[in-house]
Amino acid sequence: MRKSLLITSVCVIFAANAQTTKDKMLKTVLPPKAAIKPHKLEKHGDVRTDNYYWLNDRENPEVIEYLNKENEYYEKMTAHTKKFREDLFEEMKGRIKEDDSSVPYFYNGYYYITRYEKGKDYPIYSRKKGSLSAKEEIMFDCNEMAKGHSYFNLGGLNVSEDNKWVAFGVDTVSRRKYTIQVKNLETNEILPLKIENTTGGSTWAGDNKTLFYTRKDEVTLRSDKIYKHKLGTSAEDDKLVYFEEDDTFGTYVYKEKSKKYLVIGSHSTLTTEYRILDAKKPDGEFKIFQPRVRGMEYGISHYDDKFYVVTNKDKASNFKLMVTPEGKTGMDNWKDLIPHRRDVLLEDIDIFKNYLVISERSNGLNKIRIRPWDGSDEYYLPFDSETYTAGTSVNPDFDTDVLRYSYQSLATPSSVIDFNMKTREKTVLKEQEVLGGKFNKNNYEEKRVWATAQDGTKVPISMVYRKGIKRDGTNPLLLYAYGSYGHSMDDGFSSVRLSLLDRGFIYAIAHIRGGEDLGREWYENGKLLKKKNTFTDFIDCSKYLIEQKYTSPKHLYAEGGSAGGLLMGAIINMAPQLYNGVIAQVPFVDVVTTMLDDSIPLTTGEYDEWGNPNNKEYYEYMKSYSPYDNVKAQDYPNLLVTTGLHDSQVQYWEPAKWVARLRAVKTDNNLLFLDTNMEAGHGGASGRFEALKEVAKEYSFLLDLEGIKK
């Protein structure tokens, strides 16, 4: 496909033509209007009127009709970009190696491989016994399994220790409700067993016939029950092993890397608790490792006769590593191994027979630290860039000197690397291929800059763009962020993103508070009653990029999804004049109503993130920033809003109501689209390439606003 870099004069002509086209379309195609049906919502003596509350019913034909009309409006208004969308899809697809495969990893006598075949959307999971030259055993061909389904996802693959059985979960609705089944890998027979309404994850006990798994609440979808299944029996006879009664917690089950213990975990935003059981004695009783303490988080890893505990105990906000005998697991017995550090976040550990590997984060960057058990010198893996992501990969083998890790940057494709911790030699096993013959990472520049927030805090921004761009305010720039749940936005490579970069776009990530990019304090200062820091950080990053002439309000675009969609809703209420266009993917925008409805999936578990609006202080603070509650009569940027009818994380009606309200009160003639995938959920379309069609829609929206036609 032909690509072109922007030239200012061409950009002006294109933009003028785009505006003319848009004005003509607005006069001939009228947007749908949602019926106004006032619904009173009262809390703490405060009454809110929700005119579009009725959209909260996916079984109502009137609701489906409205969503379909919004989709029709979107298609008509973007009909002139249809060919461009198709070209973008083919362009992005053309960079991806279709007949690709993962780097094999060795576990319990077998090499496991995930591969794709040309022209097919779904993966094939296989294994080879003992050697990569051995005959391939196909465990699952998802292309065959997906036939007849508009959505398909296979997850939770879990092989028994005797290598005979594999448990797996299937979701064909995209509501993250999986059906667990079991396959005999010796006969290739899938047992008639079907365990409904699970997370898809499971773990085998050491006897190779007992399977532990997690079920969900039918209404809230909270993962609240652990069951035990015996092969050869009916699922109806499965025994409830653990019920998590606290509705702010979820639960899960797994096996330690050492294979000695089965573990049931319970977690909320701020608190964790574990129960352990000898994996060889699945009919025994799980024992509490350390009872939950409000605000105390810990994670456990077993090695030899000890447990290693990553925890924030003793006000260790950035976490520390402690150790305790396996027979004395209460926190009174925990001893410091790696103490707390104010400037270093301890994220995780990997345990090997001869080495402890520590994953850290400092100054917003990943660090991997190698510590031999024999007391010899420890060291860090060397990384040079300021815009990279590195992390330990699949390391199921305990008795090895080789650490597998991944590395990528905004301009460097992802690599899988084996590092010999003894000899310190590294072997690059695979670097992501970018097909088409046009990609050269030396054509791109990546950098990290720091914006100053309104309270004086320095906020990092990672950027990538084609070399040669001038800072004259004419560059289109897409600024992305998330900013919630302590989720750090690491700097990763995307071959898909090249379709923007090669057309003159700058791509930037704002590492705003609410994430954990600069440590735990960064997260704490962007949640609960400090949530607005997330929004003002993003706005201040936007202003910095404009002031530094990377872009201007005519060419600045913003994008975020889910909680990042909440961010998008907040910033366009607070500073709409800064952006020409905004993409809000599956946005969480009706914060107050959702957080007051404990029947909605995930709500009660979110109280530690957003606050509980049954408390007046949190209610009032939430209401002051909730995008839906703060829509007002003002000009808004051009908007593309996406959602999925079956979304279990952010219900479709939130973006649908938001768009309806915006249509009713906004004072501009800018574009406003609601695109609902009527067959998918929170993650969008399934299939390797179907998802690219959704990206092509987003990119064509941005490029069309810039007047870029090819």
- What fraction, in percent, of the residue positions are helical? 10-25%
The description of the largest β-sheet is: 8 strands, antiparallel
Radius of gyration: 26 Å
Overall pLDDT, averaged? 91
Principal-axis shape equals globular
Distance between the termini: 9 Å
Could you list some keywords that capture this structure?
710 residues, alpha+beta, eight-stranded mixed sheet, 13 helices, globular, disordered N terminus
Could you please describe the fold and organization of this structure?
By secondary structure, the protein is α+β, with helices and mostly antiparallel strands. β29 (415-420) and β30 (426-431) form a beta hairpin.
What does the secondary structure layout of this molecule look like, with pairings?
Blueprint: H1 8-28, E1 39-43, E2 46-50, H2 61-77, H3 82-94, E3 105-107, E4 110-115, E5 124-129, E6 136-141, H4 142-145, E7 153-159, E8 165-171, E9 178-184, E10 189-190, E11 195-204, E12 210-216, E13 223-230, E14 239-243, E15 250-255, E16 261-267, E17 272-278, E18 287-290, E19 298-303, E20 306-311, E21 320-325, E22 335-338, E23 345-351, E24 355-362, E25 365-372, E26 379-380, E27 388-392, E28 402-409, E29 415-420, E30 426-431, E31 444-452, E32 458-466, E33 477-480, H5 498-501, E34 506-510, H6 520-524, H7 532-547, E35 556-561, H8 563-574, E36 581-585, H9 591-595, H10 607-610, H11 616-625, E37 638-644, H12 653-665, E38 672-677, H13 690-705
Parallel strand pairs: 33-34, 33-35, 35-36, 36-37, 37-38
Antiparallel strand pairs: 1-2, 3-4, 4-5, 5-6, 7-8, 8-9, 9-10, 9-11, 11-12, 12-13, 13-14, 15-16, 16-17, 17-18, 19-20, 20-21, 21-22, 23-24, 24-25, 25-26, 27-28, 28-29, 29-30, 31-32, 32-34
